[in-house]
Amino acid sequence: MPEVKKNIDTQNIAQQLLNSIGRPPTSKDVLIIDDDKWIHRIVSSLLKGWGFNPISAYDPVEGLAAAIQSQPLIIILDILMPMMNGDVLLKVLKKLDNTSQIPTIIMSGAISREIFGVALRDGASAFISKPITQEKLLEKIKESLGLAVTYDPSIGKAFFTAGEN
């Protein structure tokens, strides 16, 4: 089956991504679960600029409730948090019927092969280290949604390529 290519509109990346995976345009929610308010500000600002609707949760319990209620397109989850670490929350999210299929990007400043391996084994779709960059965050969002980005130098444009989801 031939691959479908979509032109990237940097002003509305969210809509382009949703079109590529066949999701309705109302599914632009991205849940950020992190106890650091600065991370929320930075990530929310990037997501809003791309056309997503960021939802903030500052602890795992609030995050679990928000995930169940909002059914976001993606969850961005910190590993080290008070009350319950993100790896425990990830296991819970992946066991619940209504959240198990939501791609979850693990975000952490505590990078180790062990944390990375455990997160992927437990169902994380991607891993991003802090401090984050907008390029890396967008790359991990696309990766989590099963999309690839290709660049055609002959026309100077990048395209989303819908992959297996």
Task: Kindly describe this structure.
The chain is globular. The chain has one domain: Response regulator (Rossmann fold). β4, α4 (86-95) and β5 (104-108) form a beta-alpha-beta unit. The chain has helices spanning 13-21, 37-49, 60-70, 86-95, 113-121, 134-144; strands at residues 5-7, 29-33, 53-57, 74-78, 104-108, 126-129, 147-152, 157-162. The longest helix has 13 residues, at 37-49. The protein starts with a strand and ends with a strand. The protein is an alpha/beta fold. It has 6 helices and 8 strands, in the order βαβαβαβαβαβαββ.
Quick tags:
165 residues, Rossmann fold, 5-stranded parallel beta sheet
How many individual domains? 1
The assigned structural class equals alpha/beta
User: What is the straight-line distance between the termini?
Assistant: 15 Å
Fraction of residues in H or I helices: 25-40%
Poorly predicted runs:
1-9
Per the CATH scheme, the topology name is: Rossmann fold
The CATH homologous superfamily corresponds to Response regulator
Q: What gyration radius follows from the Cα positions, in whole Å? A: 16 Å
Instruction: Tell me the number of helical segments per DSSP (H or I, 4 or more residues long).
Output: 6
What percent of residues are in strands?
A: 15-25%
**Largest pleated sheet:** 5 strands, parallel
Shape: globular
Mean pLDDT over the full residue set: 80
Q: Which architecture per CATH?
A: 3-Layer(aba) Sandwich
